[in-house]
Design brief:
Elements: H1 17-20, H2 41-54, E1 63-64, H3 66-73, H4 77-89, E2 94-96, E3 100-102, H5 108-132, H6 135-154, H7 157-175, H8 178-185, H9 188-202, H10 205-220, H11 224-244
Antiparallel strand pairs: 1-3, 2-3
Helix pairs in contact: 2-4, 3-4, 5-7, 5-8, 5-10, 5-11, 6-7, 6-10, 7-9, 7-10, 9-11, 10-11
């Protein structure tokens, strides 16, 4: 069922119980490719809070606090504070001095601006990943392609969001370009939240999963040209979807 418009102003989310029950995401396979120091309480706090914001368990416009986020995740205040700083850099939380924390509303115009930037940077990332991925990373890309197909067949939104996050993370690792990585990290969460908010009214989840799988397969095959073309097809779909949401406003 679609998100009710009244949820935008509430301080709690109103998503179905399936998403709410899924707060503790499975450990992604991409952890094996990360530096050990990233596997920390701060990373765990960030992952849980980011998913809660992206899947609207914390609704757009909601006020939150360090204490409430600590209680939600079961993680102490210092890692929560560090996770909040990262989420603020990614525009998923706004820090209001002396007033607390706010999850921003969703802005279609900003999303279109983000997509123009994302297309250029993500094309570089996917093409670089196709060239530079290790055999182990290519195997995980192949697995992700198969799992995107499963998520499409099941029409499973939460699984798709988690696969999308894992796919994006592995692309950044395999591309081995720290400058592109920094730019992309500012855009992924906002893109996933926008999609999750609108997709039941304006998007085709199976098609979106299929397009993601095509990019993953091209990277697994080491074909940079096909990876770039598949990425363009994916972003064409996302841009059309974003423009379609304007008819709802």
């Amino acid at each position: 069922m679609p998100v009710e418009r009244t949820a935008r102003k509430s301080t709690t989310a109103t998503r179905p119980s399936r998403a709410r029950a899924s707060t503790s995401a499975r450990a992604p396979r991409t952890e094996r490719f990360k530096r050990p120091q990233t596997e920390s309480l701060t990373e765990q706090a960030y992952t849980q809070i980011e998913e809660a914001i992206v899947t609207l368990q914390i609704a757009p416009g909601a006020s939150v606090s360090e204490l409430s986020l600590s209680e939600m995740t079961g993680i102490g205040r210092t890692p929560i504070r560090e996770a909040i700083q990262r989420l603020a850099r990614e525009h998923l939380i706004v820090i209001l001095p002396q007033r607390g924390l706010l999850v921003p509303e969703i802005d279609v115009k900003k999303q279109l601006k983000l997509l123009r930037t994302r297309r250029e940077v993500e094309r570089l990332v996917c093409r670089s990943a196709a060239r530079s991925a290790t055999p182990e990373e290519r195997e995980v890309f192949s697995q992700l392609a198969a799992e995107f197909a499963e998520a499409a067949a099941a029409n499973d939104d939460v699984s798709f969001v988690r696969l999308d996050r894992e796919f994006n993370e592995l692309c950044l690792i395999a591309a081995r370009n720290e400058f592109a990585e920094s730019a992309m990290r500012l855009m992924h969460g906002l893109s996933r939240r926008f999609w999750y908010y609108h997709y039941k009214r304006a998007a085709d989840l199976p098609e979106m999963a299929r397009l993601h799988g095509a990019v993953a397969r091209a990277i697994a095959d080491g074909n940079a040209e096909d990876a770039g073309k598949a990425l363009d097809a994916l972003l064409d779909n996302i841009e059309a979807f974003t423009l379609a949401t304007l008819t709802e406003l």
